[in-house]
Amino acid sequence: MRAQELSPSADAGPSEFVPGGGGAAVLVSHRRVTAGTRRLARLYAVCLAAVDGWAMAVGVSMSGDAMLPGAAALAVVVLNASGGLYRTRRSPSLLTDVPAIFARTLAVAAVTAVLLPHPVAALLWAVAVSASMSLGFRAFVYAAVRTYRCRRTRPRRALVVGTGGTSAHMLDVLRDRGEFGLSVVGQVAAGRPAAAPVLGETPDLPALVRKYGIDTLVVVAEDVHPEHLDGVLRVSFELPCETLLVQPPSDVVPVARARREYLAGLPCARVDWRLRDPAARHAKRTLDFVVACLLLIFASPVLAVCALAVRIEGGPGVLFRQRRIGLGGREFVLLKFRTLKPADEQEADTRWTVKNDERMGRIGRFLRNTSLDELPQLWNVVRGDMSLVGPRPERPHFVEQFARTCPGYMLRHRAPVGMTGWAQINGFRGDTSIELRARLDNHYIDHWTFAGDLKILLLTARTMLLRDAG
User: Fold this and answer.
1) What does the pLDDT look like over 285-308, one tens digit per residue?
2) CATH code for the structural domain at 153-272
3) What is the pairing mode between strands 319-325 and 156-161?
4) What's the pTM?
5) 444, 422 in Cβ contact below 8 A?
């Protein structure tokens, strides 16, 4: 086991921000959003989309075709949505939206005009009508949003992370300009000396967010010590608030170009953790449940043969049950085919897996080498203890040990644990570096996509079928 070979790295720090210190469990709490805020955000997006679609339909209505306006309206709404033009922003700007709106309107109008008798006239009319109506309505909505934010009695509470000139400027701007809708509660130091009073240091972030009911975390990257930035951002995954990153951005966080904006002239972006989105979590869980059920059905003959072979070789007790740590630091019982009999329960919980254990018979060694001993974990996936793809779960004894020695290890529990994962398909299983494994697991969580899960599953299947460690 190579956990003792760890050395400080650029990731140093994240595990120190975990509430309760070293071996404490990470309790994942997703972003707190009130029902009213969610409804307003949805109403905002629906209204903009409806007007964009209606404007495009009016622009191409001269065609006389009943289907063409509807198709054009749908196309422009889809294009605008893919460009992030219906999301709420701290600083909505009509001038910023003009090029994007005009380009998408022109593209849809050009395709539509080709189908009409007078394409040039149809193109000019569609672009003029659609763009002017869309931009005019946006100007009204943006003004209404700024007025609402300035006059509402309970603005969103904000906490600024970082100490320095840019952070001080951000504090002054947010306090003076109500159109951003943020009320600054205070400032948190992040590895740099603070000239002004602060509410605490970065390890205090979870407690401060809970204490003051923080809705928005404003992370000023240049005023945060480089060794703390990645840790602060990764911990924000678990905080019940939105996170705005004032550039320069960290490589940890995938920030799409469509999500970039400006806050008092400073470039910033809302940190978009895809795995915190309820729709993404439901999609992942649906994939897990459907695929695990199908695999259990189709693999039932293989499961029966494995169980019979284990019973013949080692006697009663075909399944091996072991306590593991899953999502949010919660314990669950993991199922495997027994490949050897441990001396006692303490050995099972505290002894590291040895590849060529002398007590392992030919059947046990075959099951472990082919990973067939992991098949009963499909039932863990069906139950919701695990996912098909995610960081591999570890025993409580080793979780506590690695949390003290491996930077960022506890942050692996931000996502459901899995039967396979990004680290495993890249060769990190068994007696391999715990530090590198944790880095790959955290990278998977930071940049999660549904397509990425499918890719990992296909690579895992290839590895099992071809016995290819690559």
Assistant:
1) 999 999 999 999 999 999 999 999
2) 3.40.50.720
3) unpaired
4) 0.74
5) yes
